[in-house]
Amino acid sequence: MIRWSRLRPFARPEKRSLLQDILMGAAGGALGTFAMNQAQALIARLSESKEQDDSQQEPATEVAARKAAEGAGVKLEGERKKQAGNVVHWSYGTLWGAVHGALHERVPLAGKLFGVGFGLGLFLIGDELAVPLLRLAPPPQKVPAKSHLSALAAHIVYGTTAEGTYRLVRRALA
């Protein structure tokens, strides 16, 4: 939505602050990450596949944290690796939320369903393409369809929460 700073014919579109949009988006990304974690936990409980989850490889966020720490000469194990994986997950989610905020008012296709598309895009490009290419997880064809579907659902929850938070904060500050 374009806001006008003056009455026509002297009207010109009022520009939003990029920094403000980035910060609102980062807040949405952080809340979206929280909602995504809750969705993943709920999906795991509903699918009653606890024994399968325990046998899976370490999460991609923990692999990324472990590899980064090894590059710095630090060995991560146990609880420290899990905490570092959480830092990676929350940082990634908050960063992409900031990107969402920066794009929101500047991309013509950013309508009401922008959050769904954003979450879908992160799932496809992040989980399905980048994570396997970086060898943080097995290739998509070696992952069960059930895992793909639960990850897709969690990313849509992330995107819609990030979008909703961005819109609420933007309205509150207007």
From TrEMBL:
Pfam families per UniProt: DUF1440
Domain of life of the native organism: Bacteria
Region (Disordered): 47-76
The name this protein goes by in its record: DUF1440 domain-containing protein
Organism: Corallococcus exiguus
Upper taxonomic lineage: Bacteria, Pseudomonadati, Myxococcota, Myxococcia, Myxococcales
